[in-house]
């Protein structure tokens, strides 16, 4: 990107903000009059022409004003937008909503999608937290009839796995409960590999249960499915950029095809929790996203469970609001996931 003078940066920033609000090409006169610039319209016109020549703006036709290009939006996001935060009143309202949904991951996801769509002013995407490594939390062994025993394995995060076993001979409930308590004490917080390592020092009978638990943990990791919750699609399709039916179909394809969406999110969202990524025009990687932008973040607890969330819309997106909303909601979701695993 070419370096811009302070005034050119100001002009570009104002064009982006004005065009975001109006979806109408911005003239030099409109900038001078609305923002009280202490320079003439001719000076602003020269800056607009220079920004257009450098590729940051475009002019739909000769008599029209200017609108940002993909390169202009990218410069704005990377260098001009600064740190933004949601107003405190909105933060408090959103926090209260999440507090009321405490303990229910599915409700958190639906709420996060709704909040992102409403406050981020676009379509929202939220994936369920996926356990990076399934971890042992609690074991119960329940005698049901004769030699039949129900094994109940609870994973960190609350997921429950069950399996019916047939023992070589009947074992009393008292002995089963004591054994389950010993195994729980040995294995709590451990992943499959660490659980299996506990078998070496255990009595022979308990070793079989420990090996089975380790296998159940492995299978839990393999079959973990990632749900995707969406909201606010109507927000995107109502934008003037998407009056074209073909463009609208592209938007719907991105939002509705789960496989494509998962591939996109796995590549676009950074593996670390806490940062926000802005994808403008597909960043030359996704042809279907030429007309769109996404603001994405990963949430959760690294090493335990993480998911992704974000806002999807036209390139003419209110980036400051979208970024601050995504960052704030991702932080809330991370705190809630932390509570599940550590409190």
Quick overview:
The protein is an alpha+beta fold. It contains 13 helices and eleven strands.
Description of the structure:
The chain is α+β, with helices and mostly antiparallel strands and about 350 residues long. The chain folds into 3 domains: about 5-80, Orthogonal Bundle (Arc Repressor Mutant, subunit A), CATH 1.10.10.10; about 90-130 and about 225-340, 2-Layer Sandwich (Beta-Lactamase); about 135-220, Heat-inducible transcription repressor hrca homolog, domain 3 (Enolase-like, domain 1). About 50% of the residues lie in helices and about 20% in strands. The chain contains 13 helices and 11 strands. It has helices at about 5-20, 30-35, 40-55, 70-80, 90-100, 105-120, 175-185, 190-195, 205-220, 235, 245-255, 260-270, 320-340, and strands spanning about 55-60, 65-70, 125, 130, 135-145, 150-155, 160-165, 230, 275-280, 290-300, 305-315. The strands form 3 sheets. Strands 3, 4, 8, 9, 10 and 11 form a 6-stranded antiparallel beta sheet that branches. It has a 3-stranded antiparallel beta sheet with strand order 5-6-7. It has a two-stranded antiparallel ribbon with strand order 1-2. The longest helix is centred in the C-terminal third of the chain and has 24 residues, at about 320-340. The chain is elongated, with a radius of gyration of 27 Å. It starts with 5 loop residues before the first helix and ends with a helix.
């Amino acid at each position: 990107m070419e370096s811009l003078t302070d005034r050119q940066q100001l002009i570009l920033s104002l064009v982006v903000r004005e065009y975001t609000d109006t979806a109408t090409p911005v003239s030099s006169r409109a900038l001078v009059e609305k923002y009280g610039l202490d320079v003439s319209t001719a000076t602003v016109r020269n800056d607009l022409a220079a920004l257009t020549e450098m590729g940051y703006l475009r002019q739909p036709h000769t008599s029209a004003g200017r609108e940002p290009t993909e390169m202009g939006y990218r410069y704005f996001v990377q260098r001009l937008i600064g740190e933004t935060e949601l107003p405190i009143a909105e933060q408090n309202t959103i926090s209260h909503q999440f507090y009321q949904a405490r303990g229910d991951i599915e409700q958190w996801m639906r709420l996060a999608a709704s909040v992102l769509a409403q406050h981020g002013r676009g379509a929202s995407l939220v994936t369920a937290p996926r356990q990076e490594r399934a971890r042992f939390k609690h074991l119960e062994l329940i005698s049901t009839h004769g030699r039949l025993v129900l094994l109940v394995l609870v994973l960190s995060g609350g997921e429950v796995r069950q399996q019916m076993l047939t023992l070589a001979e009947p074992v009393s409930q008292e002995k089963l409960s004591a054994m389950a308590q010993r195994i729980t004490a040995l294995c709590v917080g451990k992943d499959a590999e660490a659980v299996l390592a506990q078998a070496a020092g255990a009595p022979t009978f308990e070793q079989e249960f420990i090996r089975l638990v380790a296998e159940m943990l492995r299978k839990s990791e393999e079959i973990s499915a990632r749900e995707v919750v969406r909201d606010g699609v109507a927000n995107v399709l109502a934008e003037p950029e998407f009056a074209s039916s073909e463009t609208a179909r592209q938007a719907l394809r991105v939002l509705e095809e789960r496989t494509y969406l998962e591939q996109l999110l796995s590549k676009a969202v950074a593996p670390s929790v806490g940062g926000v990524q802005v994808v403008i025009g597909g960043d030359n990687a996704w042809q279907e996203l030429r007309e769109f932008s996404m603001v994405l973040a990963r949430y959760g607890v690294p090493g335990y469970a993480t998911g992704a969330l974000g806002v999807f819309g036209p390139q003419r997106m209110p980036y400051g609001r979208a970024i601050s909303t995504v960052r704030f909601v991702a932080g809330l979701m991370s705190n809630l996931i932390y509570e599940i695993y550590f409190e």
